[in-house]
């Protein structure tokens, strides 16, 4: 069993013993060794490589005459357990990035498109910068980038070389009061925002990785990441690269949107990311006569928050000023008036004062909580 701990599953990144793939070993007096190995699926494409590694390590041990591998397939429960261990191992081995250790990372996520996730991201970013914070905005919605237009930024990103000769990307900056925005987006890599980026999954993950490792972010208090909808490659890559990320889930009041958004929460929990809260967007519309209309239903945000077990951070009403502010590059939370602007600023205030306070405010309690979560490992899912 000790020798088998040297056999690494190339896909899961852990050794086959600690991952629970070795269900038994029998050694006969004559030196015949029978090893029972359970694969995640019967047709695992890495079976031949695992077989070669097992035989190489065991066959060379003194006294071993022959090695036989008895293959099996995991049950769904066993497979879930293995994936849980693998994701935790990936979290512990997270690579270095340019994101400062003191920056709080918030991924603004949703289960589906069209819920106003990018609008929420930019409005929270400008509201937090207006409070004097240094806020990074990473537009990880590679295909559907819209952050540059919403923040009134254009022009391609520039690059410089460090003293060691490595190239670094310089984010676009925008001063807001005593605060500062630093923005990176694939929309700042093309000459025309109408250009379609026809990238496959691996390229998407690599783009996000480059934004985290090759951008000279400098000092940051917060990094807000505008996530693509769903639970695909970018989401899994982010969990591996920035395991300290907190998720804020955006939904509309519609029950259908809430049921889809729960998948984003499930992905976060499976990846050991904390869900910080839920924001309900487009909650209602109030006409000039003061009549309120729940155009997309009611209760979806609170229902999602209750199901996930987190706070409903706020409800943003449906107002034309939110859309026009994004179109003009002046998010409504910056200088706007009305219920939507006030709701967005209130959510930003709640985040920085209660939900995800900056490091200097979080102090020992946040560091202790992080240490406890890491110590508990895969059991710390609640």
Topology diagram in text:
Elements lengths: L21 E6 L4 E8 L7 H13 L6 E8 L2 H17 L11 E6 L7 H14 L3 E6 L7 H4 L7 E4 L5 E4 L1 E5 L2 E7 L15 H13 L8 E5 L6 H9 L4 E6 L3 H16 L3 E8 L3 E2 L5 E2 L6 H9 L3 E5 L3 H9 L3 H4 L3 H17 L3 H18 L6
Parallel strand pairs: 2-3, 4-10, 4-11, 5-9, 5-10, 11-12, 12-15
Antiparallel strand pairs: 1-2, 6-7, 8-9, 13-14
Helix pairs in contact: 3-11, 5-6, 7-8
Describe it.
- By secondary structure, the protein is of the alpha/beta class.
- The protein has 12 helices and 15 strands.
- It has helices spanning 47-59, 76-92, 117-130, 147-150, 201-213, 233-241, 255-270, 300-308, 320-328, 332-335, 339-355, 359-376, and strands spanning 22-27, 32-39, 66-73, 104-109, 134-139, 158-161, 167-170, 172-176, 179-185, 222-226, 246-251, 274-281, 285-286, 292-293, 312-316.
- An 8-stranded mixed sheet has the order 8-9-5-10-4-11-12-15, with helices on both faces. A 3-stranded mixed sheet has the order 1-2-3, with helices on one face.
- α7 links the parallel β11 and β12 (274-281).
- The two termini are 32 Å apart.
């Amino acid at each position: 069993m000790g020798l088998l701990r040297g056999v690494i599953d190339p896909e899961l990144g852990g050794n086959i013993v600690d991952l629970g793939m070795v269900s038994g070993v029998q050694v006969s007096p004559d030196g015949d060794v029978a090893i029972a190995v359970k694969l995640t699926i019967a047709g695992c494409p890495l079976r031949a490589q695992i077989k070669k590694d097992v035989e190489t390590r065991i066959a060379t041990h003194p006294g071993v005459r022959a090695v036989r591998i008895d293959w099996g397939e995991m049950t769904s429960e066993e497979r879930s357990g293995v994936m849980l261990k693998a994701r935790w191992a990936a979290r512990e081995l997270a690579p270095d990035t340019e994101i400062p250790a003191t920056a709080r990372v918030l991924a603004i996520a949703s289960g589906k498109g069209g819920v106003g996730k990018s609008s929420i991201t930019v409005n929270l970013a400008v509201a937090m910068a207006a409070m004097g914070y240094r806020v990074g905005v990473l537009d990880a919605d590679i295909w559907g980038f819209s952050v540059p237009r919403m923040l009134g930024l254009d022009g391609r990103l520039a690059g410089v070389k460090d003293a060691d000769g490595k190239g670094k990307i310089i984010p676009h900056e925008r001063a807001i009061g005593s605060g500062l925005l630093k923005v990176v987006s694939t929309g700042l890599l093309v000459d025309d925002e109408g250009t379609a980026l026809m990238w496959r999954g691996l390229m998407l993950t690599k783009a996000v990785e480059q934004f985290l490792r090759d951008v000279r972010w400098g000092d940051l208090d917060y990094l807000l990441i505008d996530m693509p909808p769903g639970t695909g490659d970018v989401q899994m890559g982010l969990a591996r690269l920035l395991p300290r990320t907190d998720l804020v889930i955006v939904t509309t009041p519609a029950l259908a949107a809430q049921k889809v958004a729960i998948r984003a929460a499930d992905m976060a929990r499976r990846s050991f990311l904390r869900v910080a809260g839920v924001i309900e967007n487009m909650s209602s519309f109030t006409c000039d006569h003061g009549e309120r209309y729940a155009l997309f239903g009611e209760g979806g945000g609170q229902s999602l928050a209750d199901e996930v077990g987190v706070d409903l951070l706020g409800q943003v009403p449906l107002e034309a000023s939110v859309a026009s502010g994004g179109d003009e590059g002046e998010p409504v939370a910056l200088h706007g008036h009305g219920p939507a602007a006030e709701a967005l600023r209130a959510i930003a205030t709640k985040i920085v004062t209660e939900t995800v306070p900056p490091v200097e405010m979080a102090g020992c309690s946040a560091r202790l909580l992080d240490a406890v979560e890491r110590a508990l490992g895969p059991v710390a899912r609640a």
